[in-house]
Amino acid sequence: MEQKVILRIVDDIVIIDSPKEMTMTYSNNLYVEILKVYNKNKYNVIFNMEKTKYISSFGISILIIAMRNARENNGEVKLAMLSDSVKKMIDSMDFQTLFEVYPSVQAALKAFKEKNKSEK
After folding, report:
1. DSSP 3-state assignment of 80?
2. Are 102 and 79 in contact (CB under 8 A)?
3. Domain residue spans of the chain
């Protein structure tokens, strides 16, 4: 059963609500939505992972691909509201230095805004 991906745009930053499970079975729709966002030249993305309780290596690979594509286009991917199990998985694979992680979507939005101010 495919889980619907919800996304919204706030101040030109795309917020994607990740599915409950980021596995090969449940992440295909997520990948398609990310590609649609990038095709609209929006490369600053926040993954709201509040509802994500499990992430497989396939799910992590989607995050890495999203990060690589964003950085190649002067964008950034930030993660927000990681559950303990997802944080443990990311930490166990030593990816905590690859992604900026925030306790809330608002904190991630604030980080993007502060970066934009400092670049002007």
Report:
1. strand
2. yes
3. 1-10+21-42+56-100
